[in-house]
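STRUCTURE:
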């Protein structure tokens, strides 16, 4: 298992984020928020600058975290297609194997009524990605999507092409009162290519570092090790996330604490 990190958990200034990641001996990075926007909003000049910085400092891009699929299932799909096209171009530039996607905002009733539409849209994205050799990583963000419950996510994986895989987010299952170790991992492990790493108390979004919540990280990590998982553990601690009182220095300290907690959990496996 390889530790990666969402760079904007430290800073949307890529230079600052890479400096902290280097200090933490993390050489794999997931690009999401960068220089004031999402990675898919980068201009050609900005994208080339980011690529140079990453290459010169010896970083590998593990994924591009796009917001594709974070639109209403009943909305026009054309803007999402255009955004995904740009994401594919950037994935090629950054040599990123995965593009994070979602399964479209929907009420409970809409999720049933538009299920076939959601599958069709995601299937189109899979076909677009195939010539690039890129895999779609579906994030099971909590609630309000066409697929977010463990069994719903499993059904989507079973029905979609083999380049539609899981970004396993155990914290989101915990927020929705599932036990991710018992109720989600056995279903989604065969499809999982990487995980988001943070912790929380069950039924809340009181995010914390590994071991300070109810996500059962020791059990999840032991299970992954037992099954020979070789993918990425991507730090997304969300400590102080969205708070205007969180300074850059606080973000750096929070990230260092999250990285240390994950390392300790991994060390305890051996």
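SEQUENCE:
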């Amino acid at each position: 298992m390889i530790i990666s990190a969402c760079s904007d958990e430290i800073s949307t200034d890529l230079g600052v984020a890479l400096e902290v990641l280097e200090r933490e001996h993390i050489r794999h990075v997931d690009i999401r928020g960068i220089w004031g926007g999402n990675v898919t909003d980068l201009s050609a000049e900005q994208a080339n600058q980011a690529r140079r910085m990453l290459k010169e400092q010896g970083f590998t891009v593990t994924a591009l975290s796009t917001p594709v699929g974070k639109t209403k299932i009943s909305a026009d799909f054309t803007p999402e297609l255009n955004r995904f096209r740009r994401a594919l171009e950037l994935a090629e530039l950054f040599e990123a194997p995965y593009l994070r996607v979602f399964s479209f905002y929907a009420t409970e009733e809409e999720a049933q009524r538009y299920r076939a539409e959601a599958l069709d849209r995601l299937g189109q994205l899979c076909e677009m990605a195939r010539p690039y050799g890129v895999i779609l990583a579906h994030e099971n963000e909590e609630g309000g999507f066409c697929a977010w419950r463990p069994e719903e996510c499993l059904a989507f994986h079973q029905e979609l092409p083999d380049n539609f895989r899981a970004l396993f987010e155990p914290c989101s299952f915990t927020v929705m009162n599932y036990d991710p170790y018992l109720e989600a991992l056995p279903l989604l492990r065969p499809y999982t290519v990487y995980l988001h790493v943070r912790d929380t108390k069950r039924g809340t979004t009181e995010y914390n570092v590994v071991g300070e919540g109810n996500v059962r990280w020791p059990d999840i990590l032991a299970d992954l090790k037992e099954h020979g998982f070789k993918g990425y553990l991507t730090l997304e601690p969300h400590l102080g996330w969205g708070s205007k009182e969180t300074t850059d220095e606080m973000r750096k300290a929070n990230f260092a604490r999250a990285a240390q907690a994950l390392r300790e959990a991994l060390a305890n496996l051996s």
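REMARK: The chain has a mean pLDDT of 94.
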